[in-house]
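2024-03-11 09:14:02 INFO queue: dequeued item Dihydroorotate dehydrogenase, len=84
2024-03-11 09:14:02 INFO validating residues
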Amino acid sequence: MTAGIARGDADDPYSGEEYDFLPLRLPRDVSRVTAAMRLAIEAEFGGWELSRVRLYTDGSRRVLLRRRRTKTSGLLPPDATKGL
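2024-03-11 09:14:37 INFO prediction written
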């Protein structure tokens, strides 16, 4: 038996049952300041918080944002936000 938290545990914050996730890929030409501003905007207006950041050797970043799932999450049809 291995140590650690098994996926799907009620105590696991990354189980996906309580959170919506938003993966972002930031190219290497995006500066730290620009990346921080973009993430701050997502946090301020979208209610997202930083979950993980992975920096690759080529300089690009993979960012995973999360927010607590609410009763109203996913109620809009997929095309409701087109053109925004």
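2024-03-11 09:14:37 INFO annotate: The first helix runs from residue 32 to 46.
2024-03-11 09:14:38 INFO item closed
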